[in-house]
Design brief:
Layout (H helix, E strand, L loop, with lengths): L1 H10 L6 H8 L3 H7 L8 H14 L5 H7 L5 E6 L5 H17 L2 E6 L4 H13 L4 E4 L6 H9 L4 E4 L7 E5 L1 H13 L5 E7 L4 H16 L3 E7 L4 H11 L9 E4 L2 H14 L9 E6 L12 E4 L2 H17 L7 E4 L2 E3 L13
Helix pairs in contact: 2-3, 2-4, 6-13, 7-8, 9-10, 11-12
Protein name: LacI family transcriptional regulator
GO molecular function, one term: transcription cis-regulatory region binding
InterPro entries: HTH_LacI, LacI/GalR-like_sensor, Lambda_DNA-bd_dom_sf, Peripla_BP_I
Amino acid sequence: MKSKNKHASNDDKQYVSALQVAKHAGVSRSAVSRAFTPGASVSAKKREKIMEAAEALGYQVNDLARGLLARKSRLVGLVVTNPELGYRSHLVAALTKALIHRGSVPIVINTGRTEEELVAAQKTLFGYRAEATIILSGSPPSSFVDLARRNGQPLIVLGRSETGADDVNIDNEGAGREAARFFLADGIKKLGFAGALSGTPTTIEREYGFRHEAELHGATVLTGNGQNSDYAGGQEAAQQLFAVESDRPDAVFCVNDLVAFGLIDYVRKHTKLSIPEDLSIVGFDDIPEASWDAYNLTTFQQDASTMAAHAVALLDRRQAEPDRPPAHERLNTRLILRGSARIPGSYKS
């Protein structure tokens, strides 16, 4: 019986309150509030007593309650599909770090691409008075953007563009063109593109730049598309590109590193081709695994910390100037040369 009561007591234990701090320090409840409010009036001696009492009791300010009282929270929602995959996982990590440094509280909402799922996510964020939403993936419906605008909530979109929203994008088309020039400089005229049927804006832009530049110089481009832009998708794309030995590419540009990993493993297991002697492969993202000995992948680097910094800067500007026109920022990439592709002697990045 005693054991049961002890267990119940532990479960019912409450957080230390400001009133308890006030009693311990021998001051008023309002004095405690002022002591933890930047710029509020409280004597240095009284503040020191309060801080000592707070430290002794383990008191922490209830920021959620403060936000609700002020009708404004520090919550920032990160809406993302499959946040555990590839570059996206590193971008989520970089964003949460940047937002915490900013003084915000990031909330990751793992959702799908349907309108119902995205709108449900947005309503959840409004219910908790989130001060902004950052979309990392998916295709937000117009109602999503309209809802954010009507509620005065800043909306930042990464990796795509949306009417009425600030966005940060990579120069995907430019990277695609550079990938083609890289292969062309090695004298390769039969190229391949490994993409995905999901047809995201980044996939479309990278393929367009690659194909346009290649065909402009008389090269042909074979296409293999997996269901999704992941490892399995890379295997599926490889099956299509290397199904006929006499009609295969001599170099492949993969829409991202995960696709490249799947393609490389397929080639090693199911063909007699040697990488990079018989087949050059370039990926996109430069996630940490790209540098592993198993892949040693030549790939385009997009820095997650840089993109996160730009997203947070856009959020700061939007809150400072709510009526300013939408900002559209485009970041460049850098080709990281490794062992999965032959490096042309005449190639200049």
